[in-house]
Structure formats: structure tokens, C-alpha cells
Amino acid sequence: MTLFEDPAYASRMLTLLTLSFHIIYATIGVGVPLMIMIAQWIGIKNNDNHYLLMARRWAKGFVVTVAVGVVTGTIIGLQLSLLWPSFMELAGNIIAMPLFMEVFAFFFEAIFLGIYLYTWDRFDNPKKHLLLLIPVAVGGGMSAYFITVVNSFMNSPAGFDIIDGELVNANPLLAMFTVSMPTKVAHVVSTAYMTIAFMFAAIAAFRLLQKKNQEYHKKSLHMAMKIGLIFAVATALIGDLSGKYLAAYQPEKLAAAEWHFETTTEAPLVMWGVLGEDNEAKYALHVPYALSILAHGLPNSEVIGLEEFPADEQPPLVIHYFFDTMVTIGMFMIALSLLYWFGMRRKWAFVEKTWYRWLIVAGGPLSFLAIEAGWWMAEVGRQPWILRGLMTIEDAATTSDYVGWMFVLFAVLYFILGVGTVVVLSYMFRKNPVEKDLEHMQGGESS
Amino acid sequence: MILEIVGISVLWLFLFGYIIVGSIDYGAGFFNAYSIVTGKQHILSKIIQRYLSPVWEVTNVFFVFFFVGIVGFFPQSAYYFGTILLIPGSLALILLAIRGSYYAFESYGKQGHKGYAIMYGLSGLLIPASLSIVLTISEGGFVFMEDGNPVLDYSALFYSPLTWSIVVLSIAAVLYISAVFLTWYANETGDKDATNLMRKYALSWSVPLIIAASGIIVELYFHNETHFENLLSLWWMFAISFVLWISTVVLIWKRRNYGTAFWLLTGQFAFAFFGYGVAHYPYLLYPLVSIHEGFTNPAMAISLIVVFILGMALLIPSLYLLLKLFLFDKNYIKGKK
């Protein structure tokens, strides 16, 4: 098997595995503090115990996912050097600064999270306790920002010159502010907020289907759907700008994602479908002019096709499926939350029907799937480059043996961590149902 | 010239920080597991819950800071160490994962599963052991070049007495540092049983520690003579370290000033660790990577140092707040809040 023979292939697979697992916890880490903050703020402002309890219960579960996220984050941090030593040698010279800053941001976040979690009842003024969340949310956002900066650099390297194979004129600041950075960072942060909002909406909808505490979960569902809608719309707008970025700076990625082989004007958008012989898209929906609009904002503009790139520099065509999965789920979530919001205002009965609730429940895992698909599209779509145009995956990978075995080892570890998270969280919340926590709060006791 | 010294000093300082805070964490886990096995349960588990849980993520950051920092300041080391450490590094990561998940799943979720607590305790010894192998490798003689790529000679590493001496030292150091700290902490909480137990552990690990440390200096004479001679020329640092060791042991023996004893211990390790580090200069990996040739470009170095200073300006007040609330708050540590 290639996994046990080719270190470069095994390194790719192990990085894929680690990142696909870590991104779940990282997304939770970025998104949940904001949600807790909003809930606690509403709770304090309206003096509503339900919202205060939401903040408290979410924070309790967050502790578990943060701890696992720290583990997976440490793993990917070190694995970068273990699996891609040549890349990290180059990266160390030019893009080390955001990595370094990320550690500080996380440090800052970890300190205040520790304080926040262990001081629920240590402040007489609850607003002071709420203030502790600001550094947590800011730290989480900054972590996402710095790491995405590094990923942007890999897509659009800048801030240095290569002369005779030597890296010269390094400018670490220019390397941080590359052309792909604004759209990438905005996309990552906004999807994290969107996904977490829909995750909480899914949980609330599921509890309502189980006929659990109606008032509490209805409030939770309503709040989460509204926040989700805002960030889903924001994500779509940013996604459109990402398309324009790709068309201008990484046209091969857009072309591969869209199965756009020949450079044409008035390019149609190929949606879904299956790739047949001779690169013919079967069963696909062709939306006229849409690719030209996505790429340049005008229906008659020219979109570069894949034919203009040498065969060994073309990204794999499979990214079309990742791209479509991401976009389809995004559109579905906008429709779902928009209908819900309108429906609640206009008192349309169907938004509170069982089948609609089940759709909301499905929205949680689907949003996570969209995040995964988005990252697969971004990373696989950069193939064969690790640093676009400068260093290939093959040149960057480790030369050590046994990478395949490490893959097996980490696969087992992630399986245990994943199952452990689910088991512990469900145990934790089954042991402390909302009703019990509410009684505690109304009785003036602290749990 | 001056920049790389600043860089390595910053990293070495963080590694030192990790050794102290990490040892407290690792040792506590081991003592906890040991007391479960010997039936003295719950003497320590409360302390671990109240002190270690809020700060372990912070402890972990010291480690991440070191390996991210070394890639930035000395990118060449990322290539050499990254290539040769695939297996030891991955194993250390798995052990760290066991540890982190214990905090995630046990202290917050269900109450104590015995087997898990024992694994958590054992990981506390195995992590320092596996990480200390990096120090052994850095002494040179275990890495050879093949087709222009560095390769680690596993059997030479396994059969070298130096490897095992450093492993023993790392374990003894973890248990000693942790025991001294927990003696102090237990005493602050007013828990007499725990104080006496930890004091006993502190005293019993003090002697193995100093024997292991002296043993390594002898091993180095056979393994890496340059490093040995550099160590000897810094004899005064090790002498100070030895005096501090005696003072710590005396204070603990007399059951006085546990707090001072811990700070003396920190001093003891600081002198020994920096003495060792200075003697290692200029090599990160004998004789392949030195801090001069492996150094990053000046623009990156200056940016990193600026970021470091700004970061510290942000972190020191926050750390102070954390310590004030959890470590030095009389009501909190006594379990009243």
C-alpha cells in the first residue's frame, strides 16, 4: 500500500486526518465564546434566567471541547515540522511571525477561559464576569486569524524574493498581508460563527422534538437561528468575493472546482453532476453566465480555463464535489434560517412542525460538513503545491520511514478522542438536565 | 550575532518555564495515580482538581511556544529535528493527548476511572522521558546523513548509557520539583496529611536527583568531550546550583518556609539548566546545526523579538491575575470558593 511506502503520500494523509479532526474543535473554539457572550449579555440585560443558564451550560460543555482542541492543536503544530520539515524550514524564515503570534493569542485566551470558568460565583457584579469573556472571544478570533494568515501565505506567497535558490529580502509583514488573506480570514471566521449558531439551533430543535423544556429551548432555537442567518448571509457574500479572488490570483483552483476546461467568456456555472469520459460533466446543471459573474462580476467576462496550465500543475478535479457540497449546504442553511425567521414573524405554522424541526437538526452536522468540504477544496485545490508556485508537496515532505504507521496510530487516537467527547458531553448533560439546573438557579443555589 | 543570542535565550527561558510548570503537573499526576494504587486515594486528587485543572492549558502553551519559537528563530533546526524526530515526537504527542484528554474527560465529566487515572499518571513520567531524548540526540553521534537527509540511528540511541541517564534525570527531576511544590501548596491549603505525604516524597527524591545529575556530567566526558569541558569551565554555576539544592532540602527537612524552599529549588534548576545551555553553545545539534548558521534572517528575528516583547506585555498581567485568583487566593485554595 502506498500509505506504508511513500512518505509524501502518507504525510498528506496524516495531515488530512489531523486537520479534518482538529477543524471541528477549532470551529467550536472560535464560535462558542461569541454565543456564550451573547446569551449571557441578553440574560443580564433582560434579567432572564433562561439565557443565563444557556451561557452556563454551553460554557460547561465548551470546557471539554477546548481541552480536546488544545490536544489536537498541539498535535498539528508539531506535526507540521515532523511531516513537512523542508516546508517548515522555508516557512520559518518568512511566515513564522503569525505562528508565533497565534501561540500568544491562544495563551491569552486560555488564561481568561480558565479564569472565566472557575469564577462563576466569585464576582458580586455579574457584568464583571461577562467582561472576562471578551478576551476569550477575541483570543479565539485572533487565533483563527493568525493561522488563516499562514494558510493564505501558502496560497499566495509574498514578501520575499528567491535568488539562486536562496530566500532573500524577507519582509515578514508583507508575508502576513497577502492578497488571499482578507477573503480567507473573513470566510473562516464567519463560517465558524455560522456553524456554531446552527449547531446550537440543532441541539435546541432536537430537545424540542423530545418535548423537553419548551420555553428554554424555544428561546435558544430562536436566538441561534437569527445569529446563524446573519452569518450565513455574510458567508455567502464573502464566498462571492473569494470566487473573485480565485479568478484573479489562483485561476487554476477555480477552474478545477468548476470543471471549466477552456478559457471562454460568458462562462456557465457547472453545478453538481458527475465527471464522465473526456471530462464531460454528466447530469450537471449549467447556469448561464454564472461563472463569469462569480469570477468577475460581469456576465460576459472571460474566465481562464484549466487548459492553460501544464498537466502536472492542475489541481485534482475531485474538488468540484467538495466545492458543490460546501455551496449547496450554505445555500440550504440560508433558506432554512430565512424561512424560519419569516415564519416566526408571520406566524406560519409549518416552521414549528416536526418535519421542519428535523431539518434544523440536520443543519448542525451539515454545517460542519460544509466546513470540512471547504477545507478539502482549499487544500486539495492547491495541489501539487504546498507553497503555490514555489514548493511542491513531494519536495516538502519528510524522508523518514514509518509515516504510514503514525497515520494508523493517530487514527486510533482521534477515534478515541472523538468518541470520548460525545460520551462525556452526553453524560454531562443527561446528568444535569435543564430542569434541574433551573431549579438550582431559582433556588438561589449555585451548582 | 547578538540577535541569535537573544533568540536562543528567550527560547531557553521558555523551556525552563515549561520544565518547572510541566514537572509540577506531570509529577502531581503520577503521585495521584500512585496514591490510588496504594490506597491513599483522595489525599491528592482534590489538590489536583483545584490547582492543575485551571492552569494545565497554560502549562501546555509553554511547550507549544518553544517548538513554534525554534522554527521561527532557527528554521534549519525544523528541518533536522523535524526529520529525525518523527517517531519520538509522535509518541510524545500521543502521550500528551492521553494527558490532555484526562483533563477533558475526567475532571469535568465523570468521576475517576481508576485505569484512566493510572494511565494519566504514567504519561506524566513517559512524557518527560520521551521529550528528554531530544536533549540526548542534540549531544550528537546519533544522527547520520543519508542521500543528503538526516537519519536517526535508533539502536545507537537505545544502547547509549547517556540516553538512559538523561531519562532517569528527567523522571527524578519531575518527581522532585513536583513534590516540593505540592508540599508547599498542600501546606497552604492547611491539609496536614497531604503536606506530610508530599514532604516525604520530596525528601526521598532529592538524593536520586543529585546522583542522576552528577552521573550525566560523567557520561558526557565519554560522549561529547567539548561539551564536558565547557561544563567544567562553568563550574561555579553548578556549585551555586548544588548549594541551592542543599538549602531546599534543609528547609523541607526542618518543615519550615516551604514557599522559600520552592523558590530556592527554582534557582537550583535555573543555574543548572542555564549552565548546561551555555555550555552547549553554539550547537543546537552537535555538530550539524549551530545557532549561527541555522539562524533566520535579521528581519524575521527582529519581528519575532518585537512580537515577543508585545506578547509579554499582554501576558504577564494576565498570568499575574490567574495566579492571584487560583494560586495565592487563600479562600480559593482552601476550597471555600
TrEMBL record, chain A:
Principal subcellular localisation of the protein: membrane
Q: Which domain of life is it from?
A: Bacteria
Q: Where in the cell is it found?
A: Cell membrane
- Species lineage, top-down? Bacteria, Bacillati, Bacillota, Bacilli, Bacillales
Pfam families linked to this entry:
Cyt_bd_oxida_I
InterPro entries cross-referenced by the UniProt entry: Cyt-d_ubiquinol_oxidase_su_1
Query: What family does this chain come from, according to its entry?
Result: Belongs to the cytochrome ubiquinol oxidase subunit 1 family.
| Originating organism | Oceanobacillus neutriphilus
Task: Could you list this entry's UniProt keywords, alphabetically sorted.
Answer: Cell membrane, Electron transport, Heme, Iron, Membrane, Metal-binding, Transmembrane, Transmembrane helix, Transport
Topology of this chain in the membrane: Multi-pass membrane protein
Annotated TM spans: 20-42, 62-82, 94-118, 130-150, 185-209, 221-239, 318-343, 355-378, 402-429
Q: What is this protein called?
A: Cytochrome ubiquinol oxidase subunit I
Claim: Methyltransferase is one of the keywords in the record: no
- Keyword Electron transport set for record: yes
Automatic annotation (TrEMBL), chain B:
Annotated InterPro entries: Cyt-d_oxidase_su2
Residues that span the membrane, as ranges: 12-34, 55-74, 80-105, 117-138, 158-182, 202-222, 234-253, 260-279, 299-327
The record's keywords, sorted A to Z, are: Cell membrane, Membrane, Transmembrane, Transmembrane helix
**A Pfam family annotated for this UniProt entry:** Cyt_bd_oxida_II
Would the keyword Cell membrane turn up in this protein's UniProt record?
yes
UniProt-annotated location(s): Cell membrane
State the similarity comment.
Answer: Belongs to the cytochrome ubiquinol oxidase subunit 2 family.
This protein is called Cytochrome D ubiquinol oxidase subunit II
